[in-house]
């Protein structure tokens, strides 16, 4: 499948969450791969790369979803798998930043 769109989300979680709550967040994010229009799903944490002027390691987790096209992304936004993630995890979000891009 050709990837036409990338949906990248950075999460800063609410301070003071327990390790179990963080693990639950990661499990919930990984479950987003089950949405039928998601072509690929990666959940990550800041890498242990050296600090540079251009790096930002301040986030707690990032989510990288790949879709065939914008229509598949739009279907994902209203898919029960995504809606369940938001419902179960939103209380853990302090800040969320979304970067959508089209593959070249």
Automatic annotation (TrEMBL):
Domain of life: Bacteria
Stress-response A/B barrel domain boundaries: 5-101
Annotated InterPro entries: Dabb, Dimeric_a/b-barrel
SMART domains assigned: Dabb (SM00886)
Pfam families: Dabb (PF07876)
Gene3D superfamilies, per database record: 3.30.70.100
Name of the protein described by the UniProt record: Dabb family protein
UniProt organism field: Neolewinella aurantiaca
